[in-house]
Write a structure and sequence with these properties.
The complex is a heterodimer of chains A (507) and B (320). Chain A has 507 residues and is α/β, with parallel strands linked by helices. Chain A contains 18 helices and 24 strands. Chain A has two domains: 236 residues, P-loop containing nucleotide triphosphate hydrolases (Rossmann fold, 3-Layer(aba) Sandwich), CATH 3.40.50.300; 245 residues, P-loop containing nucleotide triphosphate hydrolases (Rossmann fold). In chain A, the strands form six sheets. Chain A has a six-stranded mixed sheet, sandwiched between helices. The radius of gyration of chain A is 25 Å and the shape is globular. The C terminus of chain A is likely disordered. Chain B is mostly helical and 320 residues long. The model of chain B has no long low-confidence stretch (mean pLDDT 90). Classes of the chains: A alpha/beta (507), B mainly alpha (320). At the A-B interface, helix 10, helix 11 and strand 20 of A face helix 8, helix 9 and helix 13 of B.
């Protein structure tokens, strides 16, 4: 399958930004019909390298060869005409237009000569061919906004293929996909590979890399850190190359025996699934995982418990005492906190400083007669930054200047300043590098050890199996099963997540 | 204070230029007149600025002046209410209008532009209907001379509206820049969802901003009515909401919300009124009034953009 001349040869690429050497003599080879996973921590240079190949950035030195010939990729349209397609993590789609209009944006088939009217029929027919090839059976005139993220991604792939892409760059394509959607994407990837399309696959999820990559290229600090061929790919090896050392205790099991139920949710009905009731209990010192497909109602449940969305009915009690939660303030006063799914949108005010973010939930604690005492604020911000080792130059730094992992730590720092009793993490490590992930797992375990009820919602199978002490699996708004640690198994979780096998695993 | 520096500089340059071109500018009468206007305009500009900081807009204030001005005339002249009660009623009415705006924005989720645009149209129409489209006046202020002295008089040589502005600006400076509520205002303007997720009742914060805006507009309405001494329902306060928005934006408030300061709004207001004064003093046809204003605001925006651009460039080269 491997051709003699590689499809892509990027050689000794160097790129310097003001103050940082983003890439230092990096090389990357991709053969025809090969899936190469590109991994590395945030800031390792993956994006920069892909932007060089995709024509978004110009390298300071080094060359890019395509099928043996040196090419000069000056901009994105050069890249496209050379057959390089880039599927960005944040999809570049127009959700007010139809599928076909997105696929053919900027090169719509026209009719009536100078009138330049769009030939819709031709456009729809051609779109359909590409969609069918990728297994997406939807009419080409469906508005894109009605599609799931996964299907929108397929549309992006269709667009790239319609431009005769030979090399597809996928930047964290599964970060907002469900397990089932991820499996489907892998099928598409396999099929594309068999058709001779080469793929560069960027991901932080090592289990996925293991599943789909033919070869792994690791970057660290802007340089090549190593190569793993198909039979060498393993979790530990990848981590070692990425961080340059062994990562001890990635997931830490509990040390104390879990205690009796402390936090109870009874017959909770959310507006997202008005016909389903959710009941569960969580014990102090325990990490309760919520697995399931995206859209299974887990985030809606979390939001209802936290009081930001009003549930239709249901009750929440702590230590046998029923709580009245009508808004987030009520939850916060009872020590129930949520680390939301989208930290930049709901977790943080990124244009404000670290200090201002930390004190926002309980400003009254740092105020006298309604006036804020900045000294008090600074003191708590400083101590929180230290205790969570958030890397910031000062507490007056804007949160927008921090990396993803550090931003997530700011959200944590905000809540940990307030003695949590129950803390719900919704997709806490999405888009975060391995080092920060491990730190966040440590923080979660420490909280549990201190007697906090820790609940984690995650669509990353490896994470949910590694972190949780118990797993509740949700499907279409209800809990289809609860697994104890000794029963943990990927297959079982998948079964329950797609709604099957309740009777087998419910006990 | 850094953000206000360029605009402050423009103000100083303008004042120097005007006083050189026409020394009349520095005469006591002219300064008193200008500061009286700054007082009235500054008060409601602060209110509108607060709404802009939450990411909203208030277009209704001009019509609020007309409606409340007419009501004040009726209360004092036609119905002979004691003036403290009349003033209280005007302030209360103002606050209620703001409460309505705020509730429509937060509960029914109607865009602030639409809500206050409807207010602009509705209050103007109502004022004209109540007054039968006739100009109402205070005459010789018999029975409420005290109120006239409080609103149109002077204290230590300073016109009362300017004194009111100083007091209100000080209070609002504390509120906006040092209080919990002020922090919430900025937070809501930056990211309402994240603020709600931090346990802040964002609806209450936003409603509060609209109440402050029309309450301060009501204060201005009383001062303005006694300044003109009569209220013509169709013309009174026309376009004043645009002066307020211009002052706030010139003073560093971003229409996207989350940015702005009381000193900035004050400098913005002063700049606009000095500009109008400049048009008068230099004998520029007053028909060009708005054109000059528009040109200067645009110039201010361009200068601000260029300075920020250069600032960022310098920051980048420092990293190098």
């Amino acid at each position: 399958m491997v051709a003699k001349t590689p499809l892509l040869e990027a050689q000794n690429i160097t790129k310097t930004f003001p103050g940082v050497k983003a890439l230092d003599n990096v090389s990357l080879t991709v053969h025809t019909g090969e899936v190469v996973a590109l991994i590395g921590e945030n800031g390792a240079g993956k994006s920069t390298l892909m932007n060089v190949i995709g024509g978004i950035l110009q390298p300071d030195s080094g060359s890019v060869k395509l099928a043996g010939k040196i090419v000069n990729i000056r901009n994105v349209s050069d890249a496209i005409s050379l057959g390089i397609g880039f599927i960005h993590q944040e999809l570049n789609v127009l959700d007010n237009l139809t599928i076909a209009a997105n696929v053919f944006l900027g090169r719509e088939p026209l009719c009536f000569g100078p009138l330049k009217i769009i030939n819709r029929r031709k456009m729809y027919e051609q779109t359909k061919v590409h969609l069918r090839r990728l297994g997406l059976n939807l009419p080409a005139d469906t508005p894109l906004g009605e599609l799931s993220i996964a299907s929108q991604q397929i549309v992006e792939i269709a667009k790239a293929l319609s431009l005769n892409a030979r090399l597809l760059i996928m930047d964290e394509p599964t970060s907002s996909l469900t397990l089932a959607e991820t499996k489907r994407l892998f099928e598409v990837i396999r099929q594309l590979r068999n058709d001779g399309v080469s793929i560069i696959y960027i991901s932080h999820r090592l289990a996925e890399v293991k599943e789909c990559a033919d070869r792994v290229v690791v970057l660290r600090d802007g340089a090549n850190a190593g190569l793993l061929s198909l039979d060498e790919i393993s979790h530990d090896r990848m981590v070692r190359l990425m961080i340059g050392r062994d990562l001890e205790d990635y997931f830490i099991p509990p040390t104390t025996k879990t205690q009796t139920a402390y936090f109870n949710v009874t017959d909770l009905i959310t507006t997202a699934w008005p016909t389903q009731r959710i009941s569960f209990e969580a014990a102090k010192g325990q990490i309760l995982g919520f697995a399931g497909l995206i859209g299974a109602g887990r985030s809606e449940m979390a939001r209802a418990i936290f009081g930001v969305d009003k549930p239709i009915s249901g009750s929440v009690s702590m230590a046998g005492r029923k709580l009245r939660i009508n808004c987030a303030k009520d939850a916060i006063e009872n020590g129930i906190y949520l680390v939301p799914e989208d930290r930049r949108k709901s977790g943080l005010i990124v244009e404000m400083t670290f200090r201002q973010n930390i004190t926002l939930p309980r400003l009254d604690r740092y105020a006298v007669a309604g006036l804020i005492m900045k000294k008090k604020e600074k003191a708590i911000a400083k101590s929180q930054a230290e205790s969570l080792s958030v890397k910031i130059p000062s507490v007056e730094t804007l949160v927008s200047n921090l990396s993803g992992g550090n931003q997530q730590k700011v959200v944590l720092a905000k809540w940990l300043a307030l003695e949590p009793k129950v803390i719900i993490f919704d997709e806490p490590t999405r888009g975060i590098d391995v080092g920060s992930k491990s730190e966040i797992y440590h923080i979660m375990r420490n909280l549990a050890e201190k007697g906090v009820v820790v609940i984690i919602i995650s669509s990353d199978m490896e994470e949910i199996l590694g972190v949780s002490d118990r797993i509740a699996v949700m499907h279409e708004g209800r809990i289809t099963g609860i697994l104890e640690r000794q029963d943990f198994d990927e297959e079982k979780v998948m079964q329950l997540a797609v709604g099957g096998g309740t009777e087998r695993y419910a006990e | 204070m850094k953000k206000e520096l360029p605009i402050l500089l423009i103000l100083v340059v303008l004042c120097t230029a005007v006083s050189i071109a026409n020394p009349q500018f520095l005469s006591t009468t002219n300064l008193q007149n200008t500061s009286r206007l700054i007082g009235m305009f500054g008060i409601f500009s602060i209110g509108v600025g607060i709404v802009i900081i939450t990411g909203g807009i208030d277009l209704s204030v001009g019509s609020v002046f007309s409606l409340l001005g007419i009501l004040l005339c009726f209360e004092l002249v036609n119905w002979s209410w004691p003036w403290p009660i009349a003033v209280g009623a005007i302030l209360l009415t103002g606050a209620i209008l703001g409460l309505c705006h705020g509730l429509l924005v937060t509960k029914l989720k109607i865009q602030p532009f639409i809500v206050t645009l409807c207010g602009l149209l509705f209050y103007r129409g109502l004022a004209r209907y109540i007054a039968n489209d006739q100009t109402q006046g205070f005459g010789y202020c018999t029975g409420f001379e005290t109120l006239q002295r409080i609103t149109a008089g002077k204290l230590f040589g300073l016109p009362m509206p300017f004194v009111f502005l100083l007091v209100i600006a000080f209070i609002m400076w504390i509120v906006l820049h040092h209080s919990v509520y002020g922090r919430y205002l900025f937070a809501v303007g930056r990211n309402e969802e994240a603020t709600r997720f931090s346990g802040v009742n964002t609806s209450a914060v936003i409603v509060g901003a609209y109440v402050i805006s029309t309450l301060l507009a009501a204060v201005s309405a009383i001062l303005l009515a006694f300044y003109t001494n009569s209220v013509s329902p169709s013309a009174h306060g026309n376009f004043y909401e645009l002066y307020a928005i211009a002052s706030a934006v010139l003073g560093g408030c971003s229409l996207r919300g989350g940015q702005g300061s009381i000193p900035g709004i004050l400098i913005g207001t002063t700049l606009i009124l000095v500009l109008r004064n400049f048009v008068n003093l230099l004998g520029i046809p007053s028909s060009l009034d708005f054109a000059v204003l528009g040109a200067v605001i645009l110039a201010g925006a361009v200068v601000d953009f260029t300075l920020q651009h250069r600032h960022e460039k310098r920051k980048l080269s420092q990293i190098n």
